[in-house]
Each structure stands twice: as structure tokens, then as C-alpha cells.
Amino acid sequence: MIILTWLLYIPALYLVYNLRVLCAGFGVFLDMIPTVLLHGVAFAGVYWLLRLFKQLLKIPNLLPGRQEKKNNSITIYGLVTVGFTAMYALNSYGFLSRAVGGYLIPICCYIVLAVSLNLVVGISGELSLGHAGFMGVGAFSGIVAAGCLQAAVPDPFLRLVLAMICGGLIAGVAGFIIGMPVLRLRGDYLTIVTLAFGEILKSLIENLYIGLDAAGIHFGMGTDSVHLEEGGKMLISGALGATGVKTISTFFAGFLLIVFTLAVVLNLVNSKEGRAIKAVRDNRIAAESVGINVTAFKLKAFVISAILAGMAGALFGLNFGSLQASKFSYTTSIDILVYVVLGGMGNILGSIISTVVLYLIPEFLRSLADFRMIMYAVVLIVVMLCTWSPKIKGVLAVVGDNVKNSVAKLFKKEVTGHEG
Fold first, then answer.
1. What span, in angstroms and rounded, lies between the C-alpha atoms of 337 and 351?
2. What is the 3-state secondary structure (H, E, C) of 213-230?
3. Helix 156-182 crosses helix 131-148 at what angle (to 10 degrees)?
4. DSSP characters for 288-336?
5. Element at 396 (helix H, strand E)
6. Closest by alpha carbon to 311, among 144, 172, 138, 160?
7. How far is Cα of residue 144 from the mean position of the Cα atoms in its chain?
8. How far apart are CA 138 and CA 319, in angstroms?
């Protein structure tokens, strides 16, 4: 039901905003309502209408065996929605500094990257170090797409969505091309090859020149390979990267991308294909013996992860006025892997929390100058030790269960009276 709610959320939000026109008498009152409350009204209205529709039709709940998975999904969506609403309100009313407000969109991007990498590392059981390469492909593809669509699509939000779709598709194609030969390898060999491919993608971008003029778009792999007509503009200039980018990324778009990523990953994990992927992870030989195409299922998870990374890269790239390919080196892949490992392999909610915390720690420690990364390393070591301590894990499990139950009660009421 949560997925259906999100599908109807945008039309409902559009209707709420247009109440200013439909109901002239309430126009002044609606202008006084904060924008974030309008988002909440639209979401809550759709959700509870669907709940009422379900009750009227006497639609039964899920089977008991699937109820826990449903509650976990509701908890994740609920925490993400509450976090977005709180940060959106604080930022809108000026409670956040400009520096902290600037972290919101990159955090959304890295959450998507961590969740998508968890699909490969935690769910599929394959260690990949080329995730930053797909992020870079999506970033520069999105920048080029947004530049080409600037005249045809004047609306910045729609142009951003199209740029993210374009970045995701091109990153998915790159993931498919790389995954076909690479995923036949195992263990350390797979890790080394994905690391190499990530660096290859970065090197290709550093030598890529793309320009746009009245005649169309021009590609080249050298400094003198692209010749533009008068009035033309270089979109990507090799090692200089993309400069003069019109920033159109928004925090709301980042939130929608997180929800889309969660919908894709959680539905895949809980589907028949997801169970097959986990079977390959747990015992490859047993999975092959019952007829599971190991390479095909691993490739599916790998390509989906690359698509989501490309969409996050497009959102990330369109958040800065200039961007260089050096940003997407293997160190970025390792940072994303750290978010996944410390959050828990296969733990989607853990990836979200660890990404937020570990991304903000180095930023808040900038006042320590040279000691900043030393303190960051100490924090990582302490977190890792605490994560693997049985006593602390037991305490965290109890706290986590209490939080999950509390959030589930807020976002879901049990439908009673079916038997009557």
C-alpha cells in the first residue's frame, strides 16, 4: 500500500496546491500554510483514503509469514519520510546554516548509492569496488542531458527528472557491458576487476570532450577533437570536467529518488527473484543444482545497482556548478562500501543511518584541520568494534525493535473486524 500511496502522491500534491485556485475563499489561508505541511496533507490524505478503500472492500492482510517484512518496509519508509519532513521544515525556516543545508542533497545521493551497493554486496554477496564509476557515468550523462534539454524543457524539475533517467539508463548500459564478463569471476578476482573498470570509466571521462551548438551535440576524445560553431558551449572539457553547470537539483528530488530506490530494492529483495539472488549468495552450488541461472540473477542485481547509482550521480552532478572526474575515484567507492559494511550487510535501514552519520562526521570535524581524518578513523574503529560486540548488538537489537514497533504503529493500524 505504501508503494501505491507514493504513486498517487504527486497528483494529490498537485490538487492540494491548486486549492488556491479552486477555492478562492481559502486562498489567503492556504498561503499561510507552510509548504511542508501541504506535502504532509497530500501524503496522509492518499494513505488514509487507500486504507479506507481497503477496509470497505474487506481486503485481507498479508500472510503471517510476510507481515514482518511488511512492517520493516513501513518502518524504513516512515523514518525516511519523518527525516525529510523535519529537515525540510528546519531548512525552510532558516534553522539550518547554509553549510548544513548544502549537505542535504549529497546525503540523499550517498544514501541511494549505499542502498544500491548493498544490493550487490549484502544481498547478492559480491564485493564490487566500481560503484563510483557508475556514479560518474550518471553524473556526466545527466549534465549533458540537462544541457541539451535546457531550451526544450524549461521546467527545471522536469529537466532534472529526465536527466536522472538518462544518467541511470546510460550507467545501466555500462553496468551490463561490464557485468557480463566480470560476474563470471568470484572472490578477490571480481573485486580487483570491478576496481579496474571503475578507474577505466573515470579515465574515459577525463579524456572526453562534449560540446553543444546549433548543429547539435559533438563528441571527441582529445583537446582538438570538438569544433563548435559560434555561440556553442562545451559541456564536458576533459580533465577540467563540466563547468558552468546550471544547478537544478533539489532536496525534494533527492527524497523522491530515495523513495524510488527503496521501492525498487525492497520489492526486489522480497520477490521471487530476490530469494533466488540470496540463494546464490548462500550456496552457489546448491542454487545451480536446482536450476537457478547464477550469472543471470547476479547480473540483474548488478545492473539495477548501476542504474540507481547513475541516477544518484545525475542528482549529484547537477547540484554543483563545476564537477571533475577525479571526484569519482576508487576512494569514493571505498567510502560507499564503508557505509554499507558499518550499516550491516543486507541491512537497508542500517545503510541509511550509517550514511547520514558517517557523511556528517568529517564535515563537522573540519575545525580540527589536520586531525579531522584521524578522528574520523578512530570513530570508524569504535563503531566497528561496537557493531560486532555481542552485548552491544543485543542492546541495539532491543532498541531497534522498540523503534520499529513505534513507527509501525504510527504509520499503520491493524484492520480489525474482517472475521465479523
1. 10
2. ECCEEEEECCCCCCCCCC
3. 140
4. HHTT--HHHHHHHHHHHHHHHHHHHHHHHHTTSS-B-GGGGSHHHHHHH
5. helix 390-411
6. 138
7. 20
8. 13
Helix, strand, coil percentages for the chain (3-state, nearest 5):
75, 5, 20
Q: Is 213 exposed, middle or buried (0-12, 13-18, 19+ CB in 10 A)?
A: middle
Sites in the chain below the pLDDT cut of 70: 1-71, 223, 367-370, 372, 386-389, 404, 407-420
pLDDT in tens, 183-237: 887 777 888 888 888 888 888 888 888 888 877 788 888 767 777 777 778 888 8
pTM, two decimal places: 0.77
Q: Where are the alpha helices (DSSP H) in 119-237?
A: 131-148, 156-182, 187-206
* Distances, alpha carbon 312 to alpha carbons 25, 78, 262, 349, in Å: 42, 21, 13, 18
The grid coordinates listed for 337 are 562500501
Q: Which residues contact 65 (CB under 8 A, 6 or more apart)?
A: none
Strand partners, 213: 216
CB 210 within 8 A of CB 195: no
